[in-house]
Design goal:
elongated; 75% helix; mainly alpha
């Protein structure tokens, strides 16, 4: 927090220090969602540039790391929303995902996360769950889901937004520092 306060006064070396501390973990966060090094790098750079440009307006009350991690997640979500990114993601999904080695603790944490995700998914109302699965597991677009389910595209958007909110709330413990 002290470092951020120095940065808000325009201290470039302090911002360089912040960049060095967080760049790698933010890149890993973005890459984990995208499996695209170039896009992950661009997103992290955009977040750092934006935060430097808006340093006087940004109010960070708790954790600088959490603020930047959240900013990267939102940028990733916005990136995935774009049509070209969605198509590229579908192409990448057909390829083998990179081998990631995990220790036993990480395997246990991943298993816990997957079990919690499945449990939270089952807690969603049936129609909301079906829309979410069509989107995330079957890769259908909003219009395709609307047509398949005979509902409006806005209803699909609302269902997806509500599902993500509920899943975020239910899985919140996994994303805390």
């Amino acid at each position: 927090m002290e470092l951020w306060l120095i940065i808000t006064d325009g201290n470039v070396p302090a911002y360089s220090e912040l960049y060095e501390r967080f760049w790698e973990s933010l890149f890993e966060t973005a890459y984990w969602h995208l499996y695209d090094k170039a896009a992950a790098k661009d997103i992290v750079q955009e977040v750092f540039v934006y935060c430097w440009q808006k340093k006087e307006q940004i109010q960070i009350n708790e954790s600088v790391a959490a603020y930047f991690r959240t900013a990267v997640r939102f940028k990733v979500l916005n990136y995935l929303k774009s049509e070209t990114a969605r198509e590229k993601y579908q192409l990448l999904a057909g390829r083998a995902l990179p081998n990631i080695t995990c220790n036993t603790g990480e395997h246990m944490a991943m298993a816990d996360l997957q079990a919690s995700y499945r449990r939270e998914l089952e807690r969603l109302p049936e129609k909301m769950r079906e829309v979410f699965i069509d989107s995330r597991d079957h890769g259908l677009s909003i219009d395709e889901i609307a047509q398949k389910r005979a509902i409006s595209p806005q209803t699909v958007k609302n269902q997806l937004s509500a599902a993500l909110k509920k899943l975020r709330e239910g899985l919140g413990n996994f994303f805390m520092e």
